[in-house]
Amino acid sequence: MAAARHDLIARAQGGDAVALERLLRECRGDIRRYAIRHCMTSEVDDAVQETLLVVARRLRSLRAAVSFSGWLFTIVRRECRRLTRKVFLHEDVADERIEAWIAERSTNELRFELAVALESLPAHYLDIILLRDFEELTVAEIGERLGVSLATAKSRLRRARLLVREYLLGAESLSTSERK
Question: How many domains, in total, are found in the chain?
């Protein structure tokens, strides 16, 4: 089995498109299982897709086929962290602080704390977060679905994210201008 996988990897690295497609198809399930354990629920599919893209683009840079599994799971883990950071990205909160906050918690703790933070939101803020970040609707689609203007949808989304961030990182993460 391992020898067959190593041969498949070698052929894919050599430019065999059929081998690359087969390799990606074969490792998709492993990637998904790993992402389920290390990503927030809403990010699993994105992490799988991004990982497959990275593997397809960078497979030739892999030095030894025996290193493939470790290399693959490193990519998945990195994508999960990148996507988690993206959820919390905001110009008023330093990336180092977010990175430290995420690193201090296990994936299960992150999921639990995010769920609790979302449950703490008023219904109109929760709806907009769910539509944008989980259903991945555009702000225009959200406004249309909720029957509000584009400006209202943007404002609610921004405020909802600030409230979640405040809950997760603590009130001191808000700048003084946001507290007013």
Answer: 2
The encoded tokens of residue 151 equal 């400006």
Q: What confidence tier does 89 reach under pLDDT thresholds 50, 70, 90?
A: low
Task: Give the DSSP H/E element, type plus range, for residue 26.
Answer: helix 17-38
Among 68, 86, 104, give the residue marking a domain's end: 86
> Is the separation of the CB atoms in 173 and 93 below 8 Å?
yes
Kindly report each contact of residues 42-46 with a partner whose C-beta sits within 8 Å and lies 24 or more positions away, as own/partner.
42/133, 42/134, 43/80, 43/83, 43/84, 43/87, 46/79, 46/83
- Domain extent at residue 102: 92-179
Residue type, 63: R
* pLDDT one-digit tens code per residue, 47-81: 899 999 999 999 988 888 888 988 998 899 888 88
End-to-end Cα separation, the chain, in angstroms? 62
What Rg, from alpha-carbon coordinates, does the chain have? 20
Q: Using the CB atoms, write b or e for 122-160: b if 16+ within 10 Å.
A: eeebbbbbbbbbeeebebeebbeebebeeebbbebbebb
Residues 40 and 106 in one domain: no
* String of DSSP letters for 5-24: HHHHHHHHHTT-HHHHHHHH
